[in-house]
Amino acid sequence: MQDDKNPSKIKIDNQSIIENKELNIWEALIPVIILMGLLFYNIQFADGEMLGEYSNQFILLFGGLIAAIVGFFNKVSITNMLDEIWENLKSVFVPVLILLLVGALAGTWLVSGVIPAMVYYGLEILHPSIFLPACVVICAIISIATGSSWTTSATVGIALIGIGTALGVDTGMIAGAVVSGAYFGDKMSPLSDTTNLAPAIAGTDLFTHIRYMTITTVPTILVTLVVFSIISATIDASGTSDISGLLHSISLTFNVSPWLFMVPLAVIALILMKTKPLIALSVGIILAAIFAFIFQLEVLKELNNSSLNAIFNSILFDTEIATDNEKLNELFTAGGMSGMLWTIYLIISAMVFGGIMDGIGALARVTEALLSIASSVFGLFASTVISCLGLNTIASDQYLAIVIPGKMFKKAFDDRGLAPENLSRTLEDSGTVTSVLIPWNTCGAYQSGVLGVGVVDYFVYAVFNWLSPFTTLLFAALNIKIKQLKGALA
Q1: Distance (Å, rounded) from C-alpha 296 to C-alpha 175?
Q2: C-alpha distance across the termini of the chain, in Å
Q3: What span, in angstroms and rounded, lies between the C-alpha atoms of 144 and 136?
Q4: What count of other Cβ atoms lies within 10 Å of the Cβ of residue 116?
Q5: Positive or negative: CA dihedral 358, 360, 361, 366
Q6: Those residues with Cβ within 8 angstroms of residue 196's Cβ, 6 or more apart along the chain or in another chain
Q7: 319-320 and 15-19 as β-strands: parallel, antiparallel, unpaired?
C-alpha cells in the first residue's frame, strides 16, 4: 500500500510525475518565485552579468538549492531528488551531443565555404522586401520535411542569419522568422517527436491530431506571414546598396561554387531518410572537411600552416576569416564546439533545477492547483495553457510540458465530454511552441546558441510561437471547432 506521506512516482512512457501530498502550493512556488526574481534582475538590471559570465547558470543552481531545502522540510529524501536530476541529465545527453556537433558543423561549414556560398547565392536571390516571410516559408518547408526544428535551425537557419545580416536586417527579426517557420513545420510534421507525443498522451491518433491542429495553426502562421511581410516592407535594410560589394568580397576570399550545396543537401537527405541526427550531423562535418580541402585550400593556409590543423581548430575552437569587408568579418566567425559550452552549461543547470522541482513533487502540485480552478470549458483550456507555459519555465523541458499536463488534464477533458484532440492540440499550441521562448529551456538555449541570437532579442519577433497559445484560447472562448466526444452533450 502506498504511503501518502511520501512522494510516489507514476511512470508514463519513460517519463515520471512525482506527487507529494505534504507539499502545499505556496511551498511549491517558493523556488519559482526566487528563481524568476533573480533571473529578472540579472537580465533587466545587471545585463546578464550579476555573477559573471555564467550568471544564469548559477541562478538556476541556486533555485535548485532552494527547491531542495523545501523538499527536505517536506520529507523528500536526497536520493529522490538526485534520481530525478540524473533522469533529467540523461534526457539531455543526446541534445548536448547535438549541440557540440552543431558547433563543429558551423566551424567546418565556414572554412569549407558552405556558409559563404549560401550567403553569396542568397544575396543574389532574396531581396529584403520578401526576405523575412521567405525565411518563414523556407524554414517551414524544411521543418515539415525533416520533422525537426533543431535541424532546420542548424542548417538553413544559420545560412539565413548570414544572408539577412549581410542585407542589414536585424538579427532578432531574422531569428524570429526562422523560429516561427521551424516550429510551424515541426508542429505539423508527422515525423516530429512532439507531434507524436502529444496525441499519444492525450489518447488520439497522429493524423487526427494533425488535422485538428490545422484549425488553430494555419490562421496563426498566416497572421505571422502578414506581420513579417509588413515588417519587410518597412525596414531599412542598409545592406541593399552594397550587395555587389559584398558579393565581390565573398568571391575574393572564398572559392564559391554551387557544388558546395551538396553538403547541406546531404544532411537534409539523411534526416529525410530518418537517419539519427548525430549521424547526419557527423556526416555533414566530415563532408565539409573534405570540401574544405577541395575548394578552400588558400583559406585553410591563411588560418594555419597545416590545413589539417585548421580543420581541427574549426571543429573545436573559434574561427575568424578576414575579408576586406567589416560586415562580413563579423559574419564569418564560428565558435566551434567551445562556442556551445555556455549553452550546454545552461541546459545542465536547468535540468538540475527541473529535476529537483520534479523530485520534491512541485511540478505536479502546481499543475493540480491549476486543474482545481478550471470550473468551465474555457477555464480548462486556459489552465492547460498556463500549465504548459509554467512547466516550460520551471522544468525547462518541452517534453515534461506536454507529458505532465497531458496526464493531469486528460480525465478533466473526458469528464467535460471533450474529444482528446482538444487536449493534444492545446498541448502543442502552448507546450511545444513556447519552449523556445524561455532562455533556460533546452529549446530556447539551443536555438539561441545555434543562431547566435539571444532569446530576449528574438522573442517579440517569434510571432508564431507566442501567438499560438492566444489563438487556441480565442477558439476556446468563442467555442469554435471544439470537438465533443461522441454521445456527449454539446
Answers
A1: 29
A2: 40
A3: 12
A4: 29
A5: negative
A6: 190, 206
A7: unpaired
Cell of 81: 531528488
Which of 10-14, 203-207, 236-240, 379-383 has the lowest average pLDDT? 10-14
Cell triple for 168: 542589414
23: cell is 507539499
Could you give the maximum distance between any two Cα atoms of the chain, in Å?
77
Q: Provide the pLDDT for residue 259.
A: 95
DSSP label of 15: E
Packed helices 128-146 and 171-188: angle between N→C axes, nearest 10 degrees: 30
Q: Is 369 helix (H, G, I), strand (E, B) or coil?
A: helix
Contact call for residues 458 and 172 (beta carbons, < 8 A): yes
Q: Going by C-beta distance under 8 Å and a sequence separation of 6 or more, which residues neighbour residue 328?
A: 166, 246, 249, 250, 253
Helix 377-394 and helix 463-477, axial crossing angle in degrees, nearest 10: 160
* Angstrom distance (rounded) from CA 91 to CA 100: 16
Cell 576569416, located at residue: 321
* Nearest to 35, CA basis, from 7, 6, 64, 10: 64
Q: Does the structure show a pLDDT above 70 at 1? A: no
Q: Position 255: which residue type?
A: N
Contact 185, 477 (CB under 8 A): no
CA distances from 135 to 127, 139, 156, 339 (A): 11, 6, 9, 25
Radius of gyration of the chain (CA): 23
Amino acid residing at 96: V
Q: How distant is the alpha carbon of residue 85 from its chain centre?
A: 21
Residue 16: its H or E element: strand 15-19
Identity of the amino acid at 54: Y
Stated pTM of the model: 0.79
Phi, psi of 9 (to 5 degrees): -105, 130
318-330 in b/e burial notation, b at 16+ Cβ within 10 A? ebebebebebbee
Vertex 300: Cα angle to 299 and 301 (nearest 5): 90
Q: Which of 289-298, 382-391, 403-412 has the lowest mean pLDDT?
A: 403-412
Q: Where are the domains of the chain?
A: 8-91+343-477, 93-341
